[in-house]
Amino acid sequence: MIKIGFNVLAWSAIVSDQLKPVIDRLATTGYDGVEFLIGAPEEKAYREIGDHAATAGLETTAVFVLGPDENPVSPSEAVRNKALDKIKWTIDRAHDLRASVICGPFHSAFTTFTRCAPTEEEYERSAEILYKAGDYAAQAGILLTPEAVNRFECYLCNTMQQLACLVNKTAHPNVKAMFDTHHANIEEKSMSKAIAYIAPLLGHVHISENDRGTPGSGHVAWDEVFTALAKAGYQGWLTIEGFTRNDPDFANSIGVWREFSEPWNMAEGGLRLIRQMCAKHGLE
């Protein structure tokens, strides 16, 4: 069944007690789940916030990224091993959160470039790490969904064609693919064709406007997106990911230099849009 979530990065990248009122309001607004960035090292906080979300009646998902010292496609075996260790640590924290899905561009290091196009060897390295991570995730009952992101943030996987290649190489039941409308709006020729291409592997979806503001306020072709998801028979999360400057350190790290929408405008307006689109196109 379709579940609707909201990523709290619109407020903070840090999992802490400060997010508890946000979680409570997301629950009363009508969301099914809440998504958190896993990054801060304070392990206890993840279990506490996961318990709070469960008490509020919300399920959880998670997102994370890897840095250059923990890059799955590095020619250095030591660096690749660090990548696997970090992914395993993230799976542990996601388990603490009670999360069912981990998404993000963790197939390679975020904003780390070689000044060359991706190579077959890099896809093979990434697939090997993802397969081992899939084995670890299976023990926790967690689905890993690596994400194709735009060319300014990654060079390994920008399109659904590239992501499908990687996921098929990985060939693990706990490793599927993620589709994000913001990145697809930049990189894909056609939203509907991209969704149809990735449909057999699709495990998670981010609903994000072209400018990362309130879904429905920009020029993403939402009717095309939801028609394609319905044709694909997608059953899973539709999670809104929008950004603000509420957390300056996080905003600076991803190049967010202005406000796109106020967080609760995103949450309330985005929920309306998703419900309208699901009803219109028969997604249940």
Could you please describe the fold and organization of this structure?
With 284 residues, this protein is an alpha/beta fold. It has a single domain, classed as TIM Barrel. 44% of the residues lie in helices and 14% in strands. It is built from ten helices and eight strands. Strands 5-4-3-2-1-8-7-6 form an eight-stranded parallel β-sheet. Helix 3 links the parallel strand 3 and strand 4. Helix 5 runs parallel beside helix 7 (191-198). The longest helix is centred in the N-terminal third of the chain and has 21 residues, at 77-97. It starts with a strand and ends with a helix. The relative contact order is 0.14. The mean pLDDT is 96.
Helix content: 40-55%
Q: SSE order, as H and E?
A: EHEHEHEHEHEHHEHEHH
User: Separation of termini?
Assistant: 6 Å
Largest sheet: 8 strands, parallel
Low-confidence stretches: none
Report the top-level CATH class.
Answer: Alpha Beta
Which fold name corresponds to the CATH topology?
TIM Barrel
The gyration radius over C-alpha positions equals: 17 Å
Name the quaternary structure: single chain
Q: Tell me the CATH superfamily.
A: Divalent-metal-dependent TIM barrel enzymes
Rounded mean pLDDT is 96
Q: What is the correct CATH architecture?
A: Alpha-Beta Barrel
Q: In which order are the strands of the major sheet placed?
A: 5-4-3-2-1-8-7-6
- What portion of the residues fall into strands of 2 or more residues? 5-15%
